[in-house]
Write a structure and sequence with these properties.
alpha+beta; 203 residues; Glutamine Phosphoribosylpyrophosphate, subunit 1, domain 1; 34% helix; 5-stranded antiparallel beta sheet
């Protein structure tokens, strides 16, 4: 019962990622809740790691921020020491190692890492213990089941960048309509070989 009480206050979220023909789109809604209380309507759950790699998270905002900041620092060191950017797979594996290292006192965050490197666009899903699963689309958080249904129905190989953006917004909008812990708009990170673009969609 005590464990149930503790996990009742873990913030919810709806976070998705999609691989398309020219890049990767990561997105998450903006609501930060604590139990039944909405603490913020402007929370940021989508983060830049490098110029071509990003992460979107669901869980404790503090844990997300710490994890992304640490991976970003290692990515900068990698670039400085080897003279080339870190690959998306390497960034996901690094994050996996950090999460597994903390497995006894875990960082409470589910994460989607995506980006574009010399091998093209790619996407990886991580749980709080560091499992790494490559995929073409993914959803995590309390609204993931609803969002995943929309992604399953609308995804196809070779999806255009604009089509992927519309699918991402549609999936989160569907989840927000049913998940009380998600809401208040969407932050979108569009990653291509030309760089990154951030957008916000209000509901």
């Amino acid at each position: 019962m005590e464990v149930q009480q503790r996990f009742r206050y873990i913030p919810g979220a709806t976070t998705v990622g999609v691989v398309c023909d020219k890049g990767v789109i990561l997105a998450s809604e903006k609501r930060v809740s604590y139990g039944y209380f909405v603490m913020s309507k402007t929370g940021k759950k989508v983060f830049k790691i490098t110029d071509r790699i990003g992460a979107a998270c669901a869980g404790l905002v503090s844990d997300m921020q710490i994890l992304v900041r640490e991976v970003g620092a290692y990515a900068n060191l990698f670039q400085y020491e080897l003279g080339r950017p870190m690959s998306v797979r390497a960034a996901a594996k690094l994050m996996s190692n950090l999460l597994f290292e903390r497995r006894l006192f875990p960082l409470i965050t589910q994460t989607i890492v995506g980006g574009v490197d010399e091998n093209g666009p790619s996407l990886y899903v991580l749980d709080l213990l560091g499992s790494v699963v490559p995929d073409k689309y993914a959803a995590v958080g309390t609204g993931a089941e609803i969002a995943m249904g929309v992604l399953e129905a609308g995804y196809a190989d070779g999806l255009s960048l604009e089509g992927a953006r519309e699918l991402v917004v549609k999936s989160i909008r569907s989840a927000v309509s049913r998940d009380a812990m998600s809401g208040d708009g969407v932050d979108i990170l569009i990653i291509t070989e030309n760089g990154m673009e951030e957008r916000t969609v209000s509901f």
